[in-house]
Amino acid sequence: MIEEIVNEVSAKTGLSPEQAQAAVMAVMGFLQSRLPEPISGMLAGVVNGGQPAAGGAEGGIESLLEGKGMSVLGGLFGSKS
């Protein structure tokens, strides 16, 4: 998955693949440091090539994308639910 993100960033910005990878990794690192568990663990799984990080969340990023992590995300972004 990370390769797809890097390729998309490279294509949309005109950055070299190496520059795009550095940018993506910087953003991922920033997000990991700011997001609560289990979301940071899911993101670490994406960075680690789809493998859960040590102590990472069950279900991985797919669970987040399917809505299982949305209650946590809603709190981060000011949801009133």
How would you describe what is shown here?
There is one protein chain. By secondary structure, the protein is mostly helical. It has one domain. The chain is elongated.
Brief summary of the model shown:
With 81 residues, this protein is mainly alpha-helical. It is built from five helices and no strands.
Number of structurally distinct domains: 1
The residue-averaged pLDDT reads 75
Number of separate strands = 0
Query: Strand count, sense and closure of the main sheet?
Result: none
Number of helices: 5
Secondary structural class: mainly alpha
What characteristic shape results from the CA principal axes?
A: elongated
Measured by DSSP, the beta-strand proportion falls in under 5%
Distance between the termini: 31 Å
Rg from alpha-carbon coordinates: 14 Å
Give helix and strand order, one letter per element, not per position.
HHHHH
Helix content: 55-70%
* Low-confidence runs of at least 5 consecutive residues: none
